[in-house]
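re: ur msg from earlier - yeah i can do the EPZ complex, just paste it... oh wait u already did. ok heres what im feeding in:
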Amino acid sequence: MDYLKAKGIKSLSGEIEISGAKNASLPLIAMTILAKNRVDIKNLPDVADIKTLLKLLSNLGASCNYELAGTTVDTSTINHTKATYDIVKTMRASILVLGPLLTRFGHCEVSLPGGCAIGQRPVDLHLKALEQMGAKIEIKSGYIEATAPNGLKGCEIIFDKITVTGTANIVMAAALAHGKTTITNAAREPEVVQLCEILNANGVKIDGIGTAILTIHGTSGKLLNISEFKVIPDRIEAGTYLCAGAITKSELTITKVEPKHLNSVLAKLEEMGCSFTITDSTITIHPTKTIKPVKIVTQEYPAFPTDMQAQFLALATQANGVSIIEERLFENRFMHVSELQRMGADISLNGNTATVNGKSKLSGTDVMATDLRASSALVLAGLIANGETNIHRIYHLDRGYDKLEQKLKQVGAKIERLEE
Ligand code: EPZ
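and the outut:
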């Protein structure tokens, strides 16, 4: 198993190029199930979760050809519709094939994803919506067995909670359904917006894109001809590197980014004393010598993203004063706290709220990654801790960060990947 060894450094400088968004890529790969043609996808990130979903599609009989220059997916050769536990257990976003498989083939079996480190993460809202669209859903020995022999029927869906992959799943199910589907309380994340924009550009009329009320006009089973598209930049990767600039008090420029997707993250960094030079595809962070404490509440887009909570918690350990960070989306997304405490951070937890007393002097030690974003928080801490920090179980990191240590090394970080 690999681990990362990071040494506390003075500062970083230079440019970091942002890769395609993991959380846009996953629904877009699942969307190819709706196509009759071979689909060309540009700018997929080189991360494990993408490979996992492509493997899942290949296991169903699709032909997937992943290359850095571009990936092609042809789902016309899919010959069965059972997404098995061995793959789904490694990546819960596999649930994204449920809607497309059901709406195209009229039946599918998808392993229940189970929870993950950050929370129980049920899929009840996905299933309830599909039942409202006429599907028969049964849970049998850990599998979701879904059937809709006459296809799905458009209807009015109201999500009790905003769900990102739930919205994506139902948008894709509705794409081939009979009639119109309205989703109220839809997720507005940029990744959901891109999915809707691409479907809308390829034969599925969708109204309300980017709002909380989506109306999808189904094609009544007619498969789509999806032209080549390019995945949007990863706003969470971008936010992570901005935090690297802030925590090491370095001026860094991130390129190939979409600044408007980062408004709530930039606003919080400004509150902490940073400033920015922004163009239409780059952001340069001008760090502050004295980081100010901050109050953060994680909520759905366009509010502050839960996927940036761990990174900001690491940054808050270096602020002069008390920061309060409240996690509202997941019930167990503070596992990075105990590892940061072992490095010397002064953090107290009370339910879903962390109180961070900065500024703490962090010392390098062995720490363990527990989930994707917690891993990046530990890397950020390792960049400024005294001595060396060894971050173990970085398979979590490799799920969602494309060449992280290379990107940090090229701006001066002392970080390397070693074998345990
Ligand atoms: C997506 O997960 C992202 N993953 C997560 O990113 C992200 O943290 C999350 O959205 C919130 O922004 C992908 O896009 C692949 P949700 P998702 O359904 O869709 C509850 C990362 O680090 N809920 O929006 O699974 C749920 O428990 C990952 O890249 C139900 O109760 O999240 C949570 O409390 C981590 N029933 C809340 O809604 C359901 O049927 C939001 O979950 C579905 C969700």
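cool cool. The first strand starts at residue 2 and ends at 7. ping me if u need the other ligands too
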